[in-house]
Amino acid sequence: MGKFVTIHSFKGGTGKSYLSANLATIYALQGKRVCLIDLDFRAPTQHVVFEPKGIKRWVNDVLNGTAKVEECLVDCSSKVENKGTLHVGFADFSTEAIRDMISKGRKWETEALHRILSMRKELLENLKYDIVIADTSPGIQYSSINAVVAADVAIVVSTLDDSDIHGTTKMIGELYEVFQKKTVVIINKAIGGADFMDIDKSKIVEELQSKYKEAVIGLLPCYCEVGRMKRASIFAYNYPKHPFTEALRVIAAKIDLI
Ligand SMILES: Nc1ncnc2c1ncn2[C@@H]1O[C@H](COP(=O)(O)OP(=O)(O)OP(=O)(O)O)[C@@H](O)[C@H]1O
Ligand SMILES: [Mg+2]
Q: How many other C-beta atoms lie within 10 A of the C-beta of residue 102?
């Protein structure tokens, strides 16, 4: 059976949405049946990457219990020139929907957890995706933690900023361990430019490994060309030989083995 992989972080802007879209692309190009779900209801992003036309149902509707998951999935395989299957469920980016999702209470979130768990089952067991990647909001609010609870593998993306490492370590220790999730860490936007190339990256990983009990499965430098690229042009697809893409392919292979 396939895997439900949740991509989360303590702080915002660590690269979750970017890595989600690029990992989904890498898996689709390998011929896998891939589903990407935007569970970041506070700041939906994936519609900017995949530019879907005429969305009828949103992931919000699935969590509200008014739509089935297959009704919200859009075939975005053309983004990878139909070299693989890439279906995406989008979060409603209207102001009303964002306000609505932010104002949900604990009771609704408890129901939403059951719906995410049913969604996971439906996607993996009936719709037979090889991999489902869920992009989430940063921080410890219920909606993201629900996605972590539903995950087979939880990936936490952190930068090398001390405050990020501190918050991430605390979040994993206090929350993830309660759920006993298989958790791995990706360090993204590490330092920068040519300087970084001279540094022994394994030393940094070793040092981080002593802070995190979880495996650090990748360390991605901050590349100006990655940050500059328009969202709609998926980096891993357009630059398959770039070191960023090569490193992401290694990460994808490590996720496969978890
Ligand atoms: N390795 C990298 N090098 C340079 N820029 C990067 C890298 N990874 C991501 N970025 C850039 O960082 C910005 C933020 O990325 P992204 O939106 O994926 O973060 P996020 O964690 O999803 O944010 P949020 O917490 O708001 O959802 C984007 O402009 C993206 O292009
Ligand atoms: Mg995001």
A: 12
